[in-house]
Design goal:
The protein has helices spanning about 5-25, 30-55, 60-85, 95-115. The chain is mostly helical and about 120 residues long. The chain has one domain: de novo design (two linked rop proteins).
């Protein structure tokens, strides 16, 4: 697979991840505490793909690396919020595991891309 095809597929994948995070964020109970987590996970989960998309439109290699590092950081933060949601038992384990596995895979991908630069 060439770089352009890979980039297009990863953009699609991160967009789908953002959508799954938005859908997941509607599930926790409607409390002040869960609203804080809901906002945090929605911001970090959608930021993964937004920053990756920006990386693909970067003006320099340095700009590309910076955006990739942000995507990596946002994927890691999303995992953190997923762990909190899991510990609070707000969402079914099977549903959470699926999204958490995707977060782990995206984090691994962005870490690998970043390490290559």
């Amino acid at each position: 697979m060439d770089n352009k095809t890979f980039a297009k597929q990863l953009e699609y994948r991160t967009r789908q991840f953002g959508i799954s995070i938005i859908k997941l964020s509607t599930t926790p109970p409607n409390t002040i505490e869960s609203n804080v987590i809901r906002n945090q996970i929605t911001k970090s989960g959608t930021s993964v793909g937004a920053n990756y998309r920006e990386a693909n439109r970067s003006r320099s290699k340095r700009d590309f690396k910076n955006k990739i590092k942000i995507s990596e950081s946002e994927a890691s933060e999303t995992q953190y919020w997923l762990e909190i949601i899991n510990d609070m038992n707000w969402i079914e384990k099977d549903r959470l595991n699926s999204i958490n596995n995707e977060a782990k895979e995206l984090l691994a991908l962005f870490t690998a891309i970043s390490n290559k630069l």
